[in-house]
Amino acid sequence: MKKVILYKGKEKSLLRFHPWVFSGAVAKVDKNIQNGDIVEVCDNSGNFLAIGHFHDNSIAVRVFSFEPVEPNYGFWKEKVQKALAFRQSIGLINNPETTMFRLVNGEGDGLPGLIIDIYDGNAVMQFHAYGMFLLKDTFVQILRELFPDIKSIYNKSGLTLTDAEDTKAEDELLYGEVSKIIGRENGIGFNIDVQGGQKTGFFLDQRDSRKMVGELAKGHRVLNMFCYSGGFSAYALRGGAEHVDSVDISRKAIELTDANIALLGEDAVRRHSSYCEDVFKFLENMPDHAYDLIVLDPPAFAKHHRVKEQGIKGYRNINRKAMEKLQPGGLLFTFSCSQAISIDDFKTIAFSAAALEHKNVRIVHQMQHAIDHPVSIYHPEGNYLKGLLLAIE
């Protein structure tokens, strides 16, 4: 196995089991190491530290073992089996009420660079590291063994491996046939477009927050901004909302939202309206106090630290406008999926927006990704989704 040697003193993060080795910590590498190669990471004296995939970029090695193991088929299968066992323990396997869940969550399951989502017996794999991508056939075989009745396995990495020097990964069907998929979440049906939809087809990480919106929506006028497929809207309608408005700038998203609301029946359709508009303009132009509950779940405003300040400004502005327009005594569900924005940053954003609007605001609840998105305690960067439920007076 080829080796990566660190500078003296740079082994400390690995001794604390952090799964990333940054390029600035690397003193030297063996000759002819290629992107995606499995390498042994050693300290400056040559002592073993970890095993991972090498990449010639800012994250030089993504570690998948801190033990000197042989990463053969059995090794990878055991990793996925452990991930499956955890989902079994939390009631997500063979659950007729919830047929879609995250099976593998990257570093949180000891498989950095790999996401596997299951939608009603269909698997979607998304690779964020070239080393894992090279193992895609291995994971196809593992999935077929662990799920004998699996309907399809789809690789959706066309937009996640664009920086890989050795390949431009394309979205492709790896096994079976993708037909119309309607997944269920807490008894609510959703149309899942694994080929053309965002992410792997649905935002599974918001399951718990959607459930909370449904529990608090009864009798309220609800606004769902950046609605995408209408997840929050569907829960609010089932929860007894007086009326729900869904807004997204994407026509495709609005069509998907309408299709999902239709699955709830005619009564839900009557209590729902959708708007294909710019969210910021919609907020600016809507009447004051038109809604009792607003959901703000925007795309990442700050994907990298170099645009963090710009992202903070964007979050502050949209939260400030929502606080201004919300009915006094109303509820604001506000989220950030920007990795560069910490939960403390996000609380400061909410504080700034409240102060600028001279509103009395209370944090009622703090939210994060759903239970099937575990985060390694040694890898806080995996805790990307932050949410606050705010009571606005």
CA radius of gyration:
22 Å
The major β-sheet equals: 7 strands, mixed
Order of strands across the biggest sheet? 16-15-14-17-18-20-19
Give the count of helical stretches: 11
* pLDDT averaged over residues: 94
Number of strands: 20
Low-pLDDT runs: none
Helix content: 25-40%
Report the oligomer.
single chain
Beta-strand proportion = 25-35%
Distance between the termini: 62 Å
Shape: globular
Secondary structure class reads: alpha/beta
Fold and architecture overview:
With 393 residues, the chain is an alpha/beta fold. It is built from eleven helices and 20 strands. The protein has a seven-stranded mixed sheet, sandwiched between helices. Strands 2-6-5-4-1-3 form a six-stranded mixed sheet. It has a five-stranded mixed sheet with strand order 7-8-9-10-11. Helix 5 (207-216) packs parallel to helix 6 (231-238) and helix 10 (308-325) packs across helix 11 (343-357). The radius of gyration is 22 Å and the shape is globular. The mean pLDDT is 94.
What are the main properties of this structure?
11 helices; alpha/beta; six-stranded mixed beta sheet; single chain; seven-stranded mixed beta sheet; 20 strands; 28% helix; globular; 393 residues
Set out the fold topology.
Elements: E1 2-6, H1 12-15, E2 20-22, E3 26-29, E4 38-42, E5 48-54, E6 59-65, H2 73-89, E7 100-105, E8 114-119, E9 122-127, H3 130-133, H4 136-146, E10 152-155, E11 172-176, E12 181-185, E13 188-192, H5 207-216, E14 221-225, H6 231-238, E15 243-248, H7 251-262, H8 266-270, E16 272-276, H9 279-285, E17 293-296, H10 308-325, E18 330-336, H11 343-357, E19 361-367, E20 386-392
Parallel strand pairs: 1-4, 9-10, 14-15, 14-17, 15-16, 17-18
Antiparallel strand pairs: 1-3, 2-6, 4-5, 5-6, 7-8, 8-9, 10-11, 12-13, 18-20, 19-20
Helix pairs in contact: 2-4, 5-6, 10-11
